[in-house]
Specification:
70 residues; alpha+beta; 2 helices
Length: 70
């Protein structure tokens, strides 16, 4: 089994949709899917680690988050 995955044929449209949704927020992950019937919206997530322990050390949370003002 190959480790490569083909890009969706509608990737440009998916990127455009994600950018339109994401433009409203300082940070957001937009989940879109590309099954045969067309683009499907999954969710928006406002946390980069999907509920998992961050990959970066804890002391960087404040360093990276300091400039972010809500």
């Amino acid at each position: 089994m190959s480790g490569s995955v083909s890009k969706p044929v509608n990737l440009a449209q998916m990127i455009n949709l994600a950018e339109m949704i994401g433009a409203q927020f300082d940070f957001v992950r937009v989940d879109l899917y590309s099954p045969p019937q067309g683009i499907l919206f999954g969710e928006v997530t406002f946390y980069p680690y999907a509920g998992l322990e961050p990959i970066i050390p804890k002391e960087w949370d404040n360093k990276l988050g300091e400039p972010w003002r809500i």
